[in-house]
Amino acid sequence: MDIGDWLDRSAIAHRSSADGKRQALAAVAEIAARTFIRPGLPPFKASEVFDALVEREAQGSTGVGRGVAVPHARLPGLDRMRAVFVRLDAPVAFGAVDDQPVDLLFALFAPEHAGSEHLRALARVSRLLRSEEMRQQLRLARNADAIHALLNQDTEASAA
Predict the structure, then answer these.
(1) For residue 29, which of 41, 50, 87, 88 is within the disulfide window of CB 3.0 to 4.6 Å?
(2) Is 72 one of the catalytic residues?
(3) In the predicted model, is pLDDT for residue 160 greater than 50?
């Protein structure tokens, strides 16, 4: 289960601005709508991705602490796990478990009928972003390629 299999470079925003949680989720939704393809189906609309994220957030914040959120949702017609990474220019209130604002969002999207793969992916991302060193490196990365390399480097190291 490699992060590189879910996260395309085109689904990474290394500089994004948002005034709050809803705008941060809207940024994630815009990227997902632009980069996720559903074979044989029309492209996703940002509004349907946003609605799925907001519906999940209504169950409880996905702000996991230390400036990190892992929003996630199931999307009809998605053929495999997909991800979006957004680094905000300034942290926003997100209702995180530690009440700290969030500036790193690693959003996961699963097919509508995904089983345990979805849960394993959430656990994998949560473990990865618990590392203070990884969070610092992601915050300092100069571009989407650097972020992608950092996330894949960790995947390669854990596979060794």
Answers:
(1) 50
(2) yes
(3) no
